[in-house]
Design a protein that fits this description.
By secondary structure, this protein is mostly helical. The protein has 40 helices and eleven strands. Strand 10, helix 27 and strand 11 form a beta-alpha-beta unit. It starts with 8 loop residues before the first helix and ends with a helix.
C-alpha cells in the first residue's frame, strides 16, 4: 500500500494567501460590503457542497434571484478571478512536486530495461527509430485571454519568489502579487474579438520561443545523459549512435495557420504568412544566440591557430559579404572565431532581409538553408576540438547546433488539414471523366481513373478561370506547398535531422537519384491531413490533385517522386470500422504503392477521438480505436509498411484526453513501434507547456512512455496482449454502450431541442475563443455541430454527458448476456481491469469524469428547459444512466470512493468544487433571465449586460473544470 496522502502545507498556505488577496482586492476596489456578500455566497456554496440539502440550495437560488444584473455580473467576475488564482496555486504545487520527486524517470526506465535483460543493442536500435511528435493546434478550447495568461505567469513566478523570501522582501513580493491581481480584476476579462488565424500563429510562436525551443533540447540531452549513465559500459559505437539519435527523438509540429477544415479564414495566403512568421521567429532566435558566443569565444590565433577549413571559410565569407569588413573593422581580427561568428550573424541578417523582401534564399548572402548554417558551426566545433579547446565546443555552441538540428529554419512542421469534401469539389472541377461525374462510377472504376491520372507522364492542364472559390483555394494551397524549398540535397522524404517534422517526415525514402539531405532543413509542410476520410478514393483524390501541381510526379530514373505524406484521418465510428479496408485498397493500388516507396514505405494514419465519441459515445469509441489500431498495425507489418499513428486528442476525456503517458503505455502492443504523434490543444498547451519546467516534465513523460511502449513486448512480466475473449467482452460492452448513447442523442425525438434549451450552446457559439466557427453548417443538428462545442456545452452544465453516457448500459448488457449472471461477468471485467492496461485506462478515465459530474447542479440546467418537449424524460434517462455507470465503475475497479487511488486529484476537486457550484448557479440564473426576460427593464442594455455576465461564467466554469472542450 502507498503512503496515506498528506496535504501539502505550503500549498495550503499559498491558497490561503491567494484567497485573502482576492478578498482584499475586492474590498479595496468595491468596498467592504461588496466583499462581504461575495464571501457569504462563497460560504453558502461551501456548506451546500459539504452536505447537499435542498433547503440550502433553495436559499442560494433565492439569494441569486434577488440580485441585480450588475451584482450578478460582479459575482461572476469575482469567482472567475478566484479560479484563475486557484489554478496558479495548483500549478505552483505541481511545479514544487516535480522539483522534489522523480527527476530520474529516464534513469529509472533504462535501469528497468537493463534489469529485464533487454540488450543494449536493442535499446539503442529503438532510440534510433524513436520519434515522439507533439502538434500544437488552434482548436478553440483556450477560454483565457492570452494577455491574462501572461499575467498569471507573472503571478506564478512571484509566488515562487515568495516561497524563498522572508521579512520586508517577502512583503514587497506580496505587494507585487496584489498589484497583478488588481490589474486582472480591473481588466476586460473577455476577448473583445475572435482571434484570427495569424493571432493563433503568434501564440504558437510565443509557446515555441519562450518554452519549447529551450525545453526540447534540454529533455533530449537529459535522455542521452541517462542512457550514458546506465549503459556506460556500452561500446563507443553504440554510445555514438544514441548520441546522434537522441536529439532527434522529440519533434514539434503545428496546425496553427495550416488547419483549414471548416475554417474559412485559413487560406493559402494565411498559410504562406504563417510559414514566414514561423521562419522569422526561429531566425531571430538564432540571431540572439550569436552575441553570447562572440563574447565567449575570444581565442586568438596568435595563441592557437584555427583549422585550415575554418580559415578558408572565413576567407569565403569576407569575399561574399561586403558588410563583414565594416562589421569587424577596428576589432581584433586575430580572434578568428569572433570573425566567423560575425559572418554567421551577417548571413542570418541577410536571410531575414531576403525573406522580408520575398527574395530567393542566398541572393543577398543569406543562408540558403539550415544545413549551411550548421556546417559553419560544425567547422567551429571541429576547430576548437582540434585546438584542444573542446570544452569551449560544448555549452552554448553545442546547444545552438542542437537547436538547429531540431528546429531547422522552419521552427515547426506545419500540417495542412482539409476536409475531403473540399478536395472532392476541387478534383471534380479539375479532373473528371469525359463521360460524367466520377462519383457516379463504381468505386473500383473511380480508383482506376485516379490512378491513371496520378501515374500519367504529363498532368492535365489547370484552367486559369472558371473554378469555384473552394476549388481555387484547395489548388492555391497545394501550389504554395509545391513552391516551398526542398532540402539542399534534393528531394527526399526528410532527413533524420529534419526540422520539427512529423515522424514520417524523417525518412530518406525517395527513390530518385538525388542524395537525401543529411542535416536539418526540408520543407516546412510535409503532411497533408484529410479529415473525414471515407475510403481509399478520398486519399487518391488528394494524391491526384498533388500530381496536378507537381507535389508527386513520375520520374524516368526512379519511377516516382513525392514531396509530401498523405495522411487519412478516420474520425467517425463508421470510418474507423472501414479503415482497414480503406488502407488495404491503397496498399493494393499501384499508384499509392509508388507514393509509399517514394516516402520510404512509411504511412501516417490519424485517428480522431472527439468525433468518434460524439458519434457513438465514449466506450464505443474507445473500443473502436483499440481495434482499428491493432488491425492497422498488423496489416501494415504484413505489407512491409512502417505505420505511425497520429492521435487527435483533446483536453477532455470525451475528446481523447487524460494522462498522456498512461494512454501511450496502454496502447495495443505493436502500435507505437517507436513513433507517435499527437495533438495538444487549447488549454492543454497552456497547462502543459506554459513554463519550461512543466514542458520538460511532460515531454520527458511522453518520450519515456513512447520508448517503453515500443520495447514492452521484450520486457518480461509486463502485461501482454489481451486474450480474444477479453476483446470480445470489450466489443459487447461497446455495442451496448453505443446503442444506449445513440438511442438518447440521435433517436430521441426532441433531444436536440432539449440540448439547446438546457445548455449554453448558443452563448458558447458567440464567445471569442478561436478563429474556427462552432458549426460546420448553419443547422441545429448534432451531426453538424463540432465536437468541441458539443463537449464544451455539456461540461458547462456539469453533466459531462459525452464523456460517460452509455457506459453503464454497456456493462449491464454484457452482464445480462453472460452465462453465470452478473457476479461471474463482473469477475471477468475485474480481471480485465487488473491485467489489461488499455481497459484499465478506459475505466480510470471514466472514474475521473464521474467524479467531476454533478447531477444536482445539472438538474438546475434541465429546469431551464421545462417547457421544451422531452427534457424531463431526457434528464431522467441521464440520471438513471449515471447511476448505472457509477455502479459499474465501482464494481470493476473495486473502489467505493471515486478517485480513491488519486487522493491529490480528489482533494483538488473537493477544494475547487464549491466555487464551481457558485458559477454554475450564477450561470443558470443568468440564462433564465435572458431566456425569460425576467428583470430586464432597460431594453438592449440589460440584455447585453446579462449576455456578458453569462460569458464570464462560461470562462469561469472552464477555468474551474481545468478544461473546456
Amino acid at each position: 500500500m502507498g503512503r496515506p496522502h498528506q496535504p501539502d502545507r505550503v500549498n495550503e498556505e499559498v491558497k490561503d494567501f491567494l484567497l485573502a488577496a482576492h478578498r482584499q482586492i475586492i474590498t479595496e476596489q468595491d468596498g467592504a460590503a461588496h466583499a462581504r456578500w461575495i464571501a457569504e455566497i462563497r460560504e453558502l456554496a461551501a456548506r451546500l457542497r459539504l452536505r447537499f440539502a435542498s433547503a440550502d440550495e433553495k436559499k442560494l437560488v433565492a439569494r441569486l434571484r434577488k440580485m441585480s444584473i450588475d451584482d450578478l455580473h460582479e459575482a461572476a467576475r469575482a469567482f472567475m478571478l478566484l479560479f484563475w488564482l486557484l489554478n496558479v496555486a495548483e500549478e505552483r504545487h505541481s511545479e514544487r512536486q516535480r522539483a522534489q520527486h522523480d527527476r530520474e524517470r529516464f534513469h529509472s526506465l533504462f535501469e528497468r530495461l537493463r534489469k529485464a535483460g533487454v540488450p543494449v543493442e536493442r535499446v539503442a536500435e529503438a532510440i534510433e527509430s524513436l520519434r515522439a511528435t507533439i502538434v500544437l493546434t488552434a482548436h478553440p478550447t483556450e477560454a483565457l485571454r492570452w494577455s491574462l495568461r501572461e499575467t498569471l505567469d507573472r503571478i506564478d513566478a512571484l509566488l515562487s519568489a515568495r516561497e524563498v523570501t522572508s521579512g520586508s522582501r517577502r512583503r514587497d513580493v506580496e505587494e507585487e502579487i496584489l498589484a497583478e491581481i488588481t490589474g486582472m480584476y480591473l481588466s476586460t476579462n473577455l476577448r473583445t474579438r475572435k482571434p484570427t488565424p495569424l493571432d493563433e500563429v503568434r501564440y504558437a510562436i510565443h509557446v515555441m520561443g519562450d518554452v519549447l525551443v529551450h525545453a526540447v533540447p534540454q529533455v533530449t540531452a537529459t535522455f542521452f545523459a541517462a542512457f550514458r549513465d546506465v549503459y556506460g559500459d556500452a561500446s563507443p559505437a553504440v554510445l555514438g549512435r544514441v548520441a546522434h539519435a537522441a536529439p532527434r527523438s522529440l519533434r514539434v509540429g503545428s496546425w496553427m495557420g495550416g488547419d483549414r477544415d471548416g475554417n474559412p479564414f485559413v487560406t493559402a495566403r494565411i498559410t504562406e504568412k504563417a510559414v514566414k512568421q514561423y521562419r522569422e521567429a526561429i531566425l531571430v532566435h538564432y540571431r540572439s544566440r550569436i552575441q553570447p558566443l562572440i563574447e565567449k569565444l575570444m581565442l586568438s590565433d596568435q595563441r592557437r591557430p584555427v583549422s585550415a577549413a575554418l580559415e578558408a571559410s572565413i576567407a569565403r565569407d569576407l569575399k561574399a559579404l561586403p558588410d563583414l569588413e565594416a562589421r569587424i573593422d577596428g576589432r581584433n581580427t586575430s580572434e578568428r572565431y569572433r570573425v566567423k561568428l560575425n559572418a554567421i550573424a551577417a548571413r542570418l541578417d541577410a536571410r531575414l532581409r531576403e525573406d522580408a523582401e520575398d527574395r530567393e534564399p542566398g541572393s543577398l548572402g543569406g543562408y540558403v538553408d539550415a544545413s549551411a548554417m550548421e556546417a559553419d558551426l560544425e567547422l567551429m566545433r571541429a576547430s576548437l576540438v582540434e585546438s584542444r579547446a573542446g570544452r569551449l565546443a560544448r555549452g552554448a555552441l553545442a546547444a545552438l547546433i542542437e537547436e538547429l538540428d531540431v528546429f531547422g529554419f522552419d521552427l515547426v512542421a506545419l500540417d495542412i488539414r482539409q476536409n475531403q469534401s473540399k478536395h472532392r469539389q476541387a478534383r471534380a472541377e479539375l479532373i473528371c471523366p469525359v463521360d460524367g461525374p466520377l462519383e457516379k462510377l463504381p468505386l473500383s472504376k473511380q480508383r482506376a481513373f485516379l490512378e491513371h491520372i496520378i501515374l500519367a507522364q504529363e498532368p492535365l492542364p489547370i484552367p486559369d478561370t472558371g473554378l469555384s472559390d473552394d476549388a481555387r483555394e484547395v489548388l492555391e494551397t497545394l501550389q504554395f506547398v509545391a513552391r516551398l524549398p526542398m532540402p539542399s540535397g534534393g528531394p527526399s522524404g526528410g532527413s533524420s535531422g529534419n526540422a520539427s517534422g512529423s515522424a514520417s517526415g524523417h525518412t530518406s525514402g525517395h527513390t530518385s537519384g538525388h542524395a537525401p539531405s543529411s542535416g536539418p532543413g526540408g520543407r516546412s509542410i510535409r503532411d497533408l491531413v484529410i479529415s473525414d476520410t471515407e475510403n481509399s478514393v478520398t486519399v487518391l483524390e488528394l494524391l491526384a490533385l498533388c500530381r496536378q501541381v507537381g507535389l508527386v510526379r513520375p520520374d524516368g530514373k526512379s519511377g516516382f517522386e513525392s514531396d509530401v505524406n498523405i495522411v487519412p484521418l478516420f474520425e467517425s465510428i463508421e470510418s474507423l470500422s472501414g479503415a482497414v479496408e480503406s488502407m488495404d485498397r491503397l496498399y493494393r493500388s499501384e499508384a499509392y504503392r509508388r507514393q509509399l516507396a517514394a516516402r520510404g514505405m512509411r504511412q501516417q494514419v490519424m485517428i480522431g477521438y472527439s468525433d468518434s465519441m460524439k458519434d457513438g459515445g465514449y466506450l464505443a469509441a474507445a473500443a473502436a480505436l483499440e481495434k482499428v489500431q491493432r488491425e492497422l498495425a498488423a496489416q501494415a507489418k504484413a505489407e512491409g509498411v512502417r505505420l505511425e499513428f497520429f492521435h487527435g486528442r483533446g483536453g477532455t476525456i470525451a475528446r481523447g484526453g487524460g494522462p498522456t503517458h498512461r494512454a501511450i503505455l496502454a496502447q495495443p502492443t505493436g502500435t507505437v513501434n517507436g513513433r507517435i504523434k499527437l495533438t495538444e490543444q487549447g488549454e492543454v498547451i497552456a497547462s502543459k507547456y506554459g513554463t519550461r519546467s512543466a514542458a520538460a516534465y511532460h515531454l520527458e513523460l511522453l518520450l519515456a512512455a513512447t520508448l517503453e511502449a515500443t520495447l514492452a513486448p521484450e520486457i518480461p512480466d509486463r502485461a501482454k496482449e489481451p486474450s480474444e475473449s477479453w476483446r470480445e467482452a470489450l466489443a459487447v460492452l461497446a455495442e451496448g454502450s453505443r446503442k444506449a448513447y445513440r438511442a438518447l442523442v440521435y433517436e430521441t425525438e426532441g433531444f436536440v431541442d432539449a440540448f439547446y434549451a438546457m445548455t449554453p450552446i448558443e452563448e458558447i457559439s458567440t464567445l471569442n475563443l478561436g478563429s474556427r466557427p462552432a458549426r460546420r453548417t448553419n443547422t441545429r443538428a448534432v451531426q453538424t455541430l463540432r465536437a468541441i462545442p458539443w463537449t464544451f456545452s455539456w461540461n458547462q452544465t456539469r453533466i459531462l454527458l459525452p464523456s460517460w453516457y452509455g457506459a453503464g448500459s454497456g456493462v449491464d448488457a454484457f452482464c445480462a448476456a453472460a452465462p453465470g449472471g452478473r457476479d461471474k461477468a463482473m469477475a471477468r471485467l475485474q480481471t480485465m481491469y487488473k491485467r489489461w492496461p488499455y481497459f484499465r485506462s478506459v475505466i480510470d478515465n471514466l472514474e475521473q469524469v464521474l467524479a467531476k459530474t454533478d447531477l444536482n447542479v445539472g438538474k438546475r440546467y434541465a429546469e431551464l428547459a421545462k417547457g421544451v418537449g422531452c427534457t424531463s424524460e431526457v434528464f431522467l434517462r441521464i440520471e438513471k444512466e449515471f447511476n448505472r455507470t457509477l455502479r459499474a465503475v465501482r464494481d470493476i475497479s473495486g473502489e467505493r470512493m471515486l478517485l480513491a487511488r488519486e487522493p491529490e486529484l480528489r482533494e483538488a476537486l473537493d477544494q475547487r468544487t464549491p466555487y464551481l457550484d457558485i458559477l454554475s448557479y450564477l450561470q443558470v440564473e443568468l440564462l433564465d433571465r435572458k431566456r425569460s426576460g425576467r428583470g430586464l427593464e432597460k431594453g438592449r442594455k440589460d440584455l447585453e449586460r446579462v449576455e456578458y455576465a453569462i460569458q464570464l461564467t462560461i470562462n469561469g466554469i472552464a477555468a474551474g473544470l481545468r478544461n473546456t472542450g
